[in-house]
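Side project, low priority. Logging it here so it doesn't get lost.
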Amino acid sequence: MKLHNIILPLIASTLLLGASSCSHRHRADSLNGYTTVNPVVESYNPLTMDIDPNPATYTINVSTEDGRVKLNKLTLAEAKELALVETLMTYQCATLFNPQYTHLMKGGKVLRVTVYGYPARYKKKE
C-alpha cells in the first residue's frame, strides 16, 4: 500500500511534466499581423535626400474628436510614433530629419503630442 502511494504520484507528475514541455505557446507580440513603420534616419546623405528648408509641425490633441480617438489608451512612445507617421503621410516625405517632440500629459494619459522637424524626400533619378 505504501509503494502504491509513492509510485502513482511519481508517474502522474512525470506525465504532466512531459506534456507541458511539449506544448508551444504563442504570444500576441510574436504573431504580429500589421506592418511596423520605423521612420528614423540613421544617417543623412545629401546625395540621396533633399531636406525641405521649411520645417513641418504636426499635433494630435484630445480636444478634437479625431485626436481623442487616436490618443485613446496610447503610451507616450506610441503617441510619438503615431504623430511621426502621420506627419510623414501629411507632408508626403520619406522621413523627418531631426524630429523633436513636445507633449502634455495628465494622470498618465497623453493629452497632446506635437512633432517638429524637417521633411526629407529621396531625390528623383534623372
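Brief comment: Residues 2-22 form the longest helix (21 residues).
Revisit when time allows.
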